[in-house]
Write a structure and sequence with these properties.
The complex is a heterodimer. Chain A is mainly alpha-helical. Chain A has two domains: about 60 residues; about 230 residues, MetI-like fold, CATH 1.10.3720. Chain A contains twelve helices and two strands. A two-stranded antiparallel ribbon of chain A has the order 1-2. The longest helix of chain A is centred in the first third of the chain and has 43 residues. Chain A is flat and about 85 Å long. By secondary structure, chain B is of the alpha/beta class. Chain B is globular, with a radius of gyration of 26 Å. The termini of chain B are far apart. At the A-B interface, α2 of A face α1, α3 and α18 of B.
Amino acid sequence: MKNKKATATVKELFRSPEVELDIKRNRRRRIFFLFYMTLPGLVVYTIFRFIPTVLGLVLSFFNWRGTSLQMTYIGFGNYTTLLNDWIFWRSLGNHLYIFLINTVVVFTLAILLAVLLSSKRLWERGFYRVLFFFPSVVPVVIINILWMSVLNPNIGLLNSVLRMIGLEGENWLGDRAVVKNTIIFVMAWTSLGFYMVLFMAAILNIPSSIFESARIDGAGSIRQTFMITIPLIWEHVRMSLLFFIVTSSGLGFNIIFMMSKGGPNRASEILTTFMYGVSFGGESRYGYGSAIAFSILIITSLIAMLIMAVTKREVYEY
Amino acid sequence: MKKHKGSARHFGLKALLMLLSLVMLFTTLSACQSPGKTDGTTGDGGDSYAGRKLDVLFMVGGQGQMADPILAKLEEVLPGLETTVVYDHQANEIMRKRTLANDPPDIFDVNAHFYDHYAAINEGVCKPLDFLYDVPTVNDSSKKLGDIINFAMLNFGYVDGKHYCMADTIYTSGLWYDANMFKEKGYAVPESWDEFVALGEKAKADSKYLLTYSSRYGDEYFYNYWFNPLLATINVQDYGRTQNPAPDSWDAPAVRKALELTKELIDKGYVDTVSGTLEITETQMEFCNGNILFYPCGSWLEAEMAGNWPDGFDLKYLPFPPQKKGDPSYLHVTGVVSAVSAKTKNEDLVKEYYRYMLSDKETMEKVVGITLNGLPVKNFSANYGSLLPKSVASSWDAIDSGQAIGFRVMAPSFYTSLGATLKDRIDGFTSGEISIDDVINGLNEQYEQILADDSVPKYEYDLSSVMDAIREYNENK
């Protein structure tokens, strides 16, 4: 009874108009604070992302050479052209091939290396961490120049080594049969270390007691990896996948644009290099380029949603 | 009291964060200003040109910073004048943005490969150059610019009887070779197509290639410096036919023959098709290293590969071998061009700019010293040939002697979508992925699309100057 009375008194106290006013005032202050804090970011985002995206969408319905403000409205004309353009379909095929294989290669190797290099038994792990992470901090231009010299069919290091052991060298960036896989190799080499470090950070956060219990229960290293490590870092893997999908188009563009120019005969052309080519690369078809950009936005969003749906698992807390 | 203190601190923190956000926003917006180097100097003031400003935009390219001596001269002779020149790799993008912002430079020289000059002309961005023709020359006031300009060199940007673009520097093109290697190996310089092909076997025996051309940039290097000169030596009328869109433009027999002759060289192993797939400097390094006898390129080659030529490399120009000994040779004459903004408020200053560029001996010598290539003035070779590198001078000699007839390939400039198709087809043809028929049909289809597109203005390619040159050649023969 005494307790009930005390509770009622506290409730009454909290319901008093002064307190409620104070709560409301604080809430309003908090909302204002959050609003003002997000405002600069929102302004920057609106100016540099949202408005250009909307303008890009509008532009995709016009024929525009980019030299003045003279534009011709052509409705869905650019999209119709796009669907009948063999280069678009070849670029899309290359795009999906490169990013699918690259994702599998990068994530498999990054998880594997993260598991290996998180092991305290490997005393030289620090060296390997630096070695694998190194390409992530090197500017893409340097990476491209480096690999272009290694892959040069006449004087490159790779073919020289192959010839030394009696193998025939390849035209790594000029032969349509191998160019895509060469690009995938360079892309994977560039981004592997970054994801390895992300996964290592996640693995090192898992309490060691979980692994010790598993060891006591007789689980070996491989079983621990598949039954404990991967399920517990799965949310990190999912988020990294999303980040990878969003950013790898840009990385793919940088590497392909410098190393193969999308050739030979469009064998390594992806949607981003195709878009650049038709708008900034000499054709000056900015409306058509915008239509390609929108197709990239739709395709990337669909892939991201698909991956998020497919990889959804129960989240384990530890 | 405590609450009050907390609020003050809170407010202070908020103010600080707001300030930082504003700084971030301001710096972000500031960074959006056009990049590039700005060389601006102001005169001593109080003069007739005080407060006047000539604004020039230039691409970074083979012509170097050629505007510098012209602008320096203008500042010297027009006291008080302020000149601004921006050299930028992305000059075409700067031009686009400045045009959209209604603030175009007075004169702009941007890469024709990335900027659609013909669209700019049609949309009224460029000013016709007629206003320059009556300007008296610097060294001889009895002459006017119209008297000394070599209009045959100004076919780029010629629309409806008016010139809209000035050639800032003119490049010749053709086959380049190392004369020393020819001497050492005992190779005879070919004077006809048959001799050229025969040399291929000798080169092969010496583990060298007769030729390489860039297929990665096939729409330029293969098409301009190899295919069209070859096509013209077979039938110059058929070359002209391919420059004008028609559903059967590429069905011309000479087109098929030119492709067949090229394929024959590839099949015989005379063409280094691997090096042609590389970046242009990598391809050119193979030539510098002496693995290839001939390289089709523009006359910027010597300057572009400076520092990479091995000792004793004697770069020489070979006019494209005609099908029959004694017939004329052909070459694509190209160049970088400048144009005048239609909205310029400094027409008088623009006149002075071109007046000094084209008729002041001292300025011209400085300009040619930078570009190492030609200017569009009559008797250029006779008056300024000594300033050119030996290899470039030899190409001008070939033109001046009438042995080589110059033309400018215009179709990819008229119709920008043609370039991509050309590149794809040449790339596929060189790698053996597609046949000669595929090349011809693909290019015909592209022309059909261009013809069907009403938004693309159609131009008539004029072959008359080439035909006149051939007539002259035959008369002198």
